[in-house]
Design a protein that fits this description.
Helices cover 27% and strands 26% of the residues. The chain has 529 residues and is α+β, with helices and mostly antiparallel strands.
């Protein structure tokens, strides 16, 4: 069956309260079975209508609790058992908690790896935050290695190897769970890697083939790529240079300037991406944090480094918040700092600037918006990393030194069910779940589109037109209208033709009978008289 590519969009929270208040409480249709879970949140949940304006919505996930270092069961016992432990010293107190944590990763065996940057260690816990492993020293060829400001961690689901971005030591360690280092990835010695560039690895990922991808702070050509044997392969997935008016003007002048003038002109380079994740099929998703970038903010890269997400979105989707002109005084540009890919291809994108989580389905349609900036549960001061597992989301805050745990709500569950059925082409099966979504939230535009497509697929064109009209989906409405017109013609065309034929035959027969004098019409009698 044909799949749908409708896109949804997003806006800022600080002024959002005014817009939502103006929308009125009547904008949301909540049935008796739907508890208004948004009332207990410390932020205003919202989504976007057809024009990209923010409208009040229900929450897809709710913040359950947060965890800091003191909440990690077993950590204090490990620290207190160390030689020289002194509870009175601040340096030891810091080890009892998290300090500027920079990254986290949930492995295939349901363990969470936390890159505790300020404490130069990797903490490994289960998903109930019981300490499983404490990694602050590693061993390589008889030498003991320690970490210095690690900013990234990744676990290969196929081999179990742990990859750590030992950032200020300018290397990435490939280690087993006992801290035995198998390989060290360092600055490439190559003509295509400028030796003037530093090598400060920030994030790391590994694909099915064992190829290693490293985001390096000073590199703008994409991620630095190594093969399974540690050989440098080049750069992967560079962002495009956005065609601004300045770029176009420079390109024009370069065509008519001299070689010396071109040498002195400003060089145009792409913006490097800030983070990435890899899905179960081996596709790498990247996010770019810079507010100067409008294209390639989120990409899905195939093995050739080509962005196949743009084929779905046609560069039509604004990831993060949208800023309408009349509303822009309340907004600032999104800074997308991390991305996590869920089991059904959903994209969980973390916005550092607004402290928000944007969840999109695999076709880049907005599903939910959560979070905000602040001190309350569910808000952040410096949202740094995001991970998901089953129906839970985990968000790391490097200033609060904590991890906030979100759980999917009943509304979130039914939207997820309907979305997955719909995106897999099961339009008719998604009909009932979409109806339930509307009972929760009458503003949820994609539900109307989903119901309309289910009816369209069932050839109930007239009813489909009503739902497409509500969702202001003109293309789909026209498609349903064509189907409805065809049904009307099919229903009435044959009887109409039969009536015309019968009338024509009757007239012809009567004329024939009249000529033969078998019958006489009244006007013929008057003329004869």
């Amino acid at each position: 069956m044909r799949r749908d590519n409708t896109k949804e969009k997003g806006d800022d929270m600080s002024g959002l309260k005014k817009l939502i208040a103006a929308a009125g409480a009547g904008a949301i249709l909540v049935s008796g079975l739907a508890a208004n879970v948004s009332a207990v949140e410390s932020y205003d949940p919202y989504s976007y209508d057809r024009w990209g304006d923010a409208v009040a919505s229900q929450v897809g996930y709710t913040a359950e609790y947060f965890v800091d270092g003191q909440s990690i069961n077993g950590l204090a016992e490990v620290i207190e058992a160390m030689d020289g432990f002194n509870a009175e010293k601040a340096s030891w107190q810091e080890l009892l908690g998290l300090k500027e944590p920079a990254d986290m990763y949930v492995s295939a065996d349901d363990l969470m790896y936390i890159a505790d940057k300020g404490n130069n260690r990797i903490l490994v816990t289960d998903l109930d935050f019981n300490l499983v492993n404490y990694m602050d020293t590693f061993h390589y060829n008889g030498e003991e290695l320690t970490l210095k400001k690690p900013e990234g961690v990744f676990v290969d689901q196929y081999t179990g190897y742990i990859y750590v971005c030992d950032t200020e030591n300018s290397r990435v360690l490939k280690s087993d769970k006992d801290g035995n280092v198998d390989r060290i990835f360092e600055k490439p010695v190559s003509e295509i890697y400028s030796q003037d560039l530093t090598f400060n690895p920030k994030k790391v990922a590994v694909d099915k083939a064992g190829n290693v991808y490293i985001v390096v702070k000073s590199v703008t050509k994409g991620s630095v790529m190594y093969d399974i044997n540690g050989e440098f392969l080049g750069f992967f997935g560079a962002n495009r240079v956005e065609a601004t008016s300045e770029i176009i003007a420079n390109a024009f002048w370069n065509t008519i300037s001299t070689e010396s003038q071109r040498a002195r002109s400003t060089k145009t380079t792409p913006v490097g991406f800030s983070n990435f994740d890899i899905d179960d099929d081996g596709f790498i998703y990247t996010v770019t944090e810079s507010s100067d970038v409008k294209t390639d903010t989120v990409k899905k890269l195939n093995p050739k480094g080509q962005n196949i997400l743009s084929a779905i979105t046609a560069d039509d989707v604004t990831f993060g918040d949208i800023s309408p002109a009349y509303y822009s005084i309340y907004t600032k540009e999104s800074a997308l700092t991390d991305i996590d890919i869920g089991p059904n291809g959903e994209m969980n994108i973390l916005d550092f600037a607004h402290g928000r989580i944007f969840q999109y389905d695999k076709l880049a349609n907005l599903m939910f918006v959560m979070g905000g900036t602040g001190e309350q549960l569910g808000t952040f001061r410096s949202a740094t990393a995001i991970e998901s597992h089953d129906n839970m989301l985990y968000v790391l805050d490097s200033r609060k030194n904590s991890i906030t745990v979100f759980k999917r709500t009943a509304f979130g569950e039914i939207v997820t069910k309907a979305t997955n059925l719909y995106n897999d082409g099961y339009y008719e099966e998604s009909y009932e779940p979409w109806l339930t979504v509307i009972k929760y939230d009458g503003n949820y535009r994609r539900a109307y589109i989903g119901i309309g497509n289910a009816l369209l697929n069932a050839e109930q064109y007239k009813d489909a037109m009503k739902y497409f009209k509500i969702s202001i989906s003109r293309v789909r409405y026209n498609r349903a209208y064509e189907g409805y017109r065809g049904q009307v013609l099919e229903k009435y065309f044959t009887p109409a033709i039969l009536i015309i034929i019968i009338v024509c035959v009757a007239v012809k027969v009567l004329k024939t009978l009249s000529r033969k004098g078998i019958i006489t019409f009244p006007w013929q009698r008057r003329r004869g008289a």
